[in-house]
Amino acid sequence: MHPMLKPALRRAWRGRNTVQFGVTPAHAVTLGPVDIATGSFLELLDGTRGLPLLREEARTLDLSDRHVDILVRRLAEAGLLDDPRAAGPQADVLRHRAEVMERQRPDVASLSVVHPGPGEGLRRMAARRAMRVQVRGAGRVGASIAAVLS
């Protein structure tokens, strides 16, 4: 697992030792108490490091492996973590097309909040790309819809 804090959930400090993820009441979650070292560790959760490397970097912040494991578990249980590598083989096609991923990144982020499982946003986007629609009708409406969907 390469944990990443969900990019669609904005972070805000609520006081000196509480972090709020998300702003809408339906998705907002608070985490606390959070000390300075743990707050710095949260910055490392960007999906580029696996758990062994995160534990190693946490040790440089004087955080124990146990603390890291508990924090990652709490974040995962709260639905705040995503795993950009967990979406399966269909999503690999999207990952390898940088221009497509860049264009669809906001949609994937939004889907990851609505469907909170790790990699679920990317999995849903890959499933959408696999769908096919047949537009019947050669009139102005049919041609317009076909142009928008292609």
Summarize the structure.
The protein is mainly α and 150 residues long. Helix content is 50%, strand content 9%.
Protein described:
The chain is mostly helical. It has two domains: 4-82, Alpha-Beta Complex (Outer Surface Protein A, domain 3); 85-150, no CATH class. It is built from seven helices and five strands; from the N terminus they run ββββαααβαααα. The strands form two sheets. Strands 2-3-4 form a three-stranded antiparallel beta sheet, with no helix packed on it. A two-stranded antiparallel sheet has the order 1-5. Helix 4 packs across helix 6 and helix 5 (98-114) packs across helix 6. The radius of gyration is 19 Å and the shape is elongated. The mean pLDDT is 84.
Structural key phrases:
150 residues; mainly alpha; Outer Surface Protein A, domain 3; 2 domains; three-stranded antiparallel β-sheet; two-stranded antiparallel sheet; 7 helices; elongated
CATH topology of the largest domain: Outer Surface Protein A, domain 3
The quaternary organization reads as single chain
Provide the low-confidence segments as ranges.
none
The helix content is: 40-55%
Residue-averaged pLDDT, rounded?
84
CATH class descriptor name of the largest domain: Alpha Beta
What is the total tally of β strands?
5
Individual helix count: 7
